[in-house]
Write a structure and sequence with these properties.
Layout lengths: L2 H4 L9 H15 L3 E12 L5 E6 L4 E6 L1 H5 L10 E11 L4 E11 L1 H18 L17 E6 L4 H13 L3 E6 L7 H12 L7 E6 L13 H9 L4 E5 L7 H5 L2 E2 L3 H8 L3 H36 L3 H44 L1 H5 L5 E4 L17 E5 L4 E5 L8
Parallel strand pairs: 3-5, 6-7, 6-8, 8-9, 9-10
Antiparallel strand pairs: 1-2, 1-4, 2-3, 4-5, 11-12, 12-13
Enzyme class: hydrolase
GO molecular function, one term: exodeoxyribonuclease VII activity
Function: Bidirectionally degrades single-stranded DNA into large acid-insoluble oligonucleotides, which are then degraded further into small acid-soluble oligonucleotides.
Length: about 400
């Protein structure tokens, strides 16, 4: 054997970074976008809003990163042990030399997982007040412009339009969207946001036919629930059959069990309204007829009671004259009584007057013209001047002598 044959092959040496980069390029090129099914484990919610977890099955473990923007769009709470389907791209995290899935979308997998995710989101939104009756708005009594968000190919639109056209003449705006599958939820969100920009829109109806829990899952997405909650225009949800309930049903202002029932709920029955108006007109006419008849009878009764104005005036005039005479008589009698009472008082005063005593022969003696009345002999002395008042006139006198009773 030659020495050249024994020489080892030329070696290619990579740095760790170079080899990791080549592995990364190969993986990202080969697994650009993939769906991966597994059970959530090692779940961690970072303060930044990113979510880190692993997908596992019986024989392997795959690390997954869900960045903040994608995490906000997940329509159900993630928890340990939940089986999910993840969509994203494979990437290599060089500092740790590990490959991982950068998730862009996550769906619960299997009926059990779907139901658990449904109940978890329902409870969360209930606690946040999304289902509160106080925020539910009434339906317009006579809608003029109604938007319908649904698929053009489904029977739901046909059923809705058939009943709507038979009941009420309104302007209908059809907004076509996918109602299941990849991107359906985002189309419904965009439809609601766009319709809310239109002026004079009275109502939005979201509808589709029945299906399995998986088929109706679009209407259990958080993004759809948030868009319905934010809508300034009242929303009616009519998704599935009568036994089907979605998160959209709970958040909407009103829920109809089927598309047909939604049309009956939204639009008044024109025929029934016309019949009701006719009945109200008959009742109004009958009521007016009864009131007119009653008024005529009352007028007739008042007319019989109404007397001749001239005779009534003459009667009132006679009454005034009679009352005048009665007043005059009463006043005269009162004056006569008062005159008699006055005369008696005058006589009594005259009897008590000092002048009346003087007229009976008595006199009043004063000590001088302005002096006090003399009642005792001891009050004067000889030589004092006295003034004697008589019933008629005065006498001036001088005291010659006084004497007191023994």
């Amino acid at each position: 054997m030659s020495r050249a044959a024994e020489r080892p092959p030329e070696r290619t040496v990579f740095t760790v970074r170079e080899l990791t980069q080549k592995i990364r390029d190969l993986l990202e090129e080969r697994f650009l976008l993939v769906w991966v099914e597994g059970e959530i484990s090692q779940l961690k919610n970072h303060d930044s809003g990113h979510i880190f977890f692993s997908l596992k099955d019986e024989g392997a473990l795959l690390k997954v990163v869900l960045f903040r923007e994608e995490a906000r769009r997940v329509g159900f709470p993630l928890k340990e042990g939940l089986r999910v389907l993840c969509f994203g791209r494979i990437s290599v995290y060089a500092p740790r030399g590990e490959y991982r899935l950068i998730a862009q979308r996550i769906e619960p997998r299997g009926l059990g997982a779907l139901q658990a995710a449904f109940e978890a989101l329902k409870e969360e939104l209930r606690r946040r007040g999304y289902f509160d009756p106080e925020r539910k708005r009434p339906l317009p009594a006579f809608p003029r412009r109604v938007a319908v968000v649904t698929s053009l190919s489904g029977a739901a639109l046909h059923d809705f339009l058939r009943v709507a056209r038979s009941r009420w003449a309104a302007h209908l705006l059809i907004y076509p969207v996918r109602v299941q599958g990849e991107g359906a939820a985002q189309e419904i969100v965009e439809a609601l946001e766009g319709l809310n920009l239109l002026p004079d829109l009275d109502l939005i109806v979201i509808t589709r036919g029945g299906g399995s829990l998986e088929d109706l899952w679009t209407f259990n997405e958080r993004a759809v629930a948030e868009a319905v909650y934010r809508s300034r225009v009242p929303v009616v949800s009519a998704v599935g059959h009568e036994v089907d309930y979605t998160i959209c049903d709970f958040v909407a202002d009103h829920r109809a069990p089927t598309p047909t029932a939604a049309a009956a709920l939204v639009f008044p029955d024109r025929t029934a309204l016309l019949e009701k108006l006719a009945g109200l007109r008959r009742r109004l006419e009958e009521n007016l007829s009864r009131r007119l008849a009653l008024a005529e009878r009352e007028i007739h009764h008042l007319r019989r009671r109404l007397r001749d104005p001239l005779a009534l005036l003459q009667e009132r005039e006679a009454l005034v004259r009679r009352l005048g005479r009665e007043i005059h008589r009463k006043v005269a009698e009162r004056l006569l009584r008062e005159e008699g009472r006055f005369s008696a008082l005058v006589r009594h005063l005259e009897a008590l007057s000092p002048l009346a005593v003087l007229s009976r022969g008595y006199s009043v003696v004063r000590k001088g013209p302005q002096g006090p009345v003399v009642c005792k002999a001891s009050e004067v002395k000889p030589g004092d001047l006295l003034e004697i008042l008589l019933a008629e006139g005065k006498i001036a006198a001088r005291v010659e002598k006084t004497s007191s009773p023994a």
